[in-house]
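[stage:ingest] chain + small molecule (flavin-adenine dinucleotide)
[stage:ingest] validated
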Amino acid sequence: MIKTDFLIIGSGIAGLTYALKVANHLPKAKITIITKANESESNTKYAQGGVAVALDQLFDSFEKHIKDTLIAGDGLCKKEVVEFVIKEGPERIKELINWGAKFDKETSGKYNLGKEGGHTANRIVHHKDCTGLEMERTLLKKIHQLPNITILSHYFAIDLITEHHLDLKRKNKNNINCFGIYALNILNNKIIKIISKISLLATGGSGQVYLNTTNPIIASGDGLAMAHRAGAKVKNMEFVQFHPTALYHPGESPSFLISEAVRGFGGMLKTQSSNLFMHKYDSRQELASRDIVARAIDTELKISGDDFVYLDCRQLNKKKFLQHFPNIYEKCKSIGIDVFEKMIPVVPAAHYQCGGIEVNKYGQTNIKNLYACGECAYTGLHGANRLASNSLLEALVYAHHCYLSSIDLYPKLNFNKPIPDWNAEGTSEPREKIFITHNKKLVQQTMNDFVGIVRSNQGLKHASKRIKLLNYETKVLYNSTILSPQLCELRNLTTVAKLTIEQSIKRKKNKGAFFNIDLI
Ligand code: FAD
Ligand code: SIN
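[stage:predict] done
[stage:export] tokens:
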């Protein structure tokens, strides 16, 4: 058993930022971060484009950034959330810079601000094309200097501990407290309880619920699924953002991203017959918001029957491109594409979960002492579609708000409940793991085929039936065999799929990233 004052599940930008702030403020408190992979593995690590912040008050303004965010969100953003997140952005970025993060600058000393789809100004602060890696590096370095933070890598959070574990007969999901989690130590296969006064879910997104995704393997919606099982409210799951330009490279999973900043830099989308097409869909052309560009590509692919379209960068300034996008250049080169000579084959891929665990302005869920932050949370910032590079910004601002609320709550809490040990569900080794891998592929294929960029009533109904069966089969496996991360992930992915389908079926009007052809 582990007893800790603060438990943080996830070591991406949300979890690390929160941990750092709490640890600095409360040097005597014990802070524990758990992560199911190595400490830097996260969606954060792969973030390319950067962080949207209206730093340049001459050519940009908070008002412009707010307007762009509201337009991208297609009427479903919470305006008050949009306003405070955007206005607090510069302060949070400066904090990160003070902690040591290096963002690209012009020779004049001003930050070099990139542009992405849906933005009417250059406002993306970035570190070349690997901004997330730089953020993880900075945060982990600071965290390692603090003696009151422990990082437990390769610990898989299975379930939140709530009253339901204290009273197995309890059915009521109202008025619940969170007392910590049960976690599987992946290295020795032992399940322990981690008891905590305050817990923060920072488990990231769920792109792995789709076959084609830019998200790494860790993104299986674990936090969201465990919060849902415990009775937390989950909202807006029908709004799955597809990134328009993942590199088309069959066999590679996850898909490598070709940052939207490349289109902001002048990259043009073309069909395989070398025709420009974005002008047919939006006056902003290549720089329309992601939902529009992804749907336009999807339409063109259906018309032509092709597997991919092209992103043409051949005409761009070579020196500047290499400065800004060295990793993208190298990646393309490694598969035989010199971007100055050949066009890059691209295709949309599942990228970001706009919905999530519902939280208030302080990141509090409806479960007491449980916070959620980052991609697993639904704050109201993104509405029906996230504006590019607003996600890292949201995580930074909300980690700060979660921290402010937590340090206020902390002195009022104590460990006063007897928490039972893990009560083993299944006991036997799975005879054949193929049931897990096979069903995971079925979940992903079902989501790809029927719950993708363009949906239909028939497709959603079909997917719903499939996922119900897969949910049932997973439950049977879960209840009878010894737990493994793969089985837990399958259980969580089927839950994410179920929620996405259910909430898609309920939505009766197309908005942002949600598009059902039967609702036109
Ligand atoms: P993550 O960074 O995903 O971290 C989640 C953590 O939780 C990981 O440490 C993981 O191991 C851990 N975890 C998950 N489940 C469990 C479990 N069961 N037990 C224990 N630990 C668990 N956004 C932008 O704003 N700008 C960009 O330029 C940008 N580029 C992107 C590029 C790519 C390729 C991708 C995939 C995303 C990009 N995004 C970008 C989105 C952004 O990176 C993410 O939304 C953000 O990093 C999420 O941060 P997070 O802290 O919420 O979660
Ligand atoms: C990108 O670089 O295109 C990703 C930006 C984002 O997901 O916000």
